[in-house]
Amino acid sequence: MKTRQLPHTKYLIVLCTLIFLTSCHSHKKEILTDQNDYNAYLNTSNSKVISELNDQVAFWNSRIKKDSSQIIDLSKSAGTYAALFNQNADIEMLKKAEQNLHKAAQKAAIGKDNYLRALAQNYITQHRFKEAKTIIDSAAQVGGEVSASNFVLFDVAMELGKYKEAKTLLDKEADFSNYNYLIRLAKWEDYSGNLDATIQHMENAMRIAERSNIPDLKIWVYTNLADYYGHAGRIRDSYNHYLKTLTLDPSNAYAKKGIAWITYSYENYPQEALRIIEAIEKDTKSPDYTLLKSEIYEYIGDHKTSEDLKKEFINSATAINYGDMYGAYLVELYASQPETADKAITLAKKEVSNRPTPMSYDLLAHAHYGKGEYKQALKIVQDHVIGKTYEPAAQFHTAQIYKALGMQKDLTTIKEELLETSYELGPVTYSQIKNL
C-alpha cells in the first residue's frame, strides 16, 4: 500500500508499499513514464549540496561558545542541520537540529515563539506528537506570530486525533489567499474524504507558490499534489508533477520514489522501480528504501533477498534515535507473522498512546488480527475506525476481519470499494482483496 501523505511539514515523509508476485497485473497498462524524462536525475548526486551544508554547519558551530547566548548562530546551525536531514535523511542531523533549537528557545527573550514553533515541527517529524503539543502550547502562550502558531497547533491536533480542535483552529485562520491555510485546508478535506476538494485547494496553493517563486514552497506542493493526483487516478498528472519537482531539485528522493511507484504499481515494471530506488539509495540514509526493495524482491520471487532486506530494515528502524518514527511499518511487519504478533500488539498500543487516531487504532486491530484475535480486532474497528477514516489501508484491514469472522454481507460492500484502489494499495494488496 502507499500511505496517503498529509501535508504538515517540509520534511520527508515516508511512503509505505506492499508488493508481492501476483497475476492481477499480468498485463501492462498505458506506459506513461519515459526513462528519457528522468534518467539524468538518477545520475545526480547531492554530495556537493551536503558538502556545502556541512561547511555552513561548521561555520555556525564555530561561532557558538559554550554557555553563550548566541541565539542567531544556534538557530542558523539548527536550520542547516534540518536542511541536511532533508537532503540525506540522516536522523543524527534532525537530533542535532533539535538540540540547538532547544537551546535557542531557552535563551531567547525576543522572538521566542519562532524557536518554539521550529522545535515543535522538529518533534512532529520525529513523531513525538505529545511533546510537540507541549512546545507549541508554550509558543501560543508567548504570543508573537499568532497565526503561525495556530497553523502548527492545527498540525499537532490532527496528528493527535483532536479533529474538532483542529477545525476550530483552522477556521480562525481562514484566508484563501494564504498558502499555509490552503495546504492545511487540503489536509482537512483529505481527512474528511473529499479528495476533489483536497486537490482543488492544493492546486490553489500551487498557484500561490508559483507566483511567489520560492523553490521550497513549489517543491513541497508539487510532491504533495503529485501524491493526491495518484490517489485520484490521475497518474499522468502525478508523474508530471514529480518531474516538475526534479527540475527544481534534481536530487529529490521523494519525487524519484514517486516515479518508481508509478513504474511498479501502474505500469507493472518492477525492474525499473528497483533501478530507480537503487539510484536513490546512494544519496540517502533512510531505511524505508530497504523495506520497499524487500517487497519488490518478494514480488519478483526472490524471497531470500526479500527476507534479508526486511531484517535489515528492522535493524535500522529500531535504532534508538528513530524513536517511534517507523512504528507503523514495524507493526505491519510483525503482524504478518504469528510468532511476532505479540510484539505487533505491544507496538500498536504504543502507537495509539502516542497518536490516538483512527489509523493507529487500525494498526492495533490489525495486530490482533495477526494473532488470530478476530473478535477483539472487530471491536476495535467498530469503536475507533469504521466511519472515522477513509484510508484504503484501514478499509482493507477491516475487510480481512470481516472475512475471518464470516461477515459476508459487510465484506461484499467494502470489497466493492476496495477493488477501485489497485494503484494506491499496490498489486499484492489488490490480489488479496480479490481473494477475500
Oligomer: single chain
Q: Which spans have pLDDT < 50 for at least 5 consecutive residues?
A: 1-27
Taking the sheet with the most strands, its summary is: none
Counting helices, strands and paired strands, the structural category is mainly alpha
What is the fold's blueprint, element by element?
Layout: H1 35-42, H2 47-62, H3 71-88, H4 91-107, H5 112-125, H6 129-142, H7 146-159, H8 163-172, H9 179-191, H10 195-212, H11 215-231, H12 235-248, H13 253-266, H14 270-281, H15 288-299, H16 303-317, H17 327-335, H18 341-354, H19 358-370, H20 374-384, H21 392-404, H22 408-418, H23 422-425, H24 427-434
Helix pairs in contact: 2-3, 3-4, 4-5, 5-6, 5-7, 6-7, 7-8, 7-9, 9-10, 10-11, 11-12, 12-13, 13-14, 14-15, 15-16, 17-18, 17-19, 18-19, 19-20, 19-21, 20-21, 21-22
Question: What is shown here, in short?
Answer:
InterPro entries: TPR-like_helical_dom_sf, TPR_rpt. With 436 residues, this protein is mainly α.
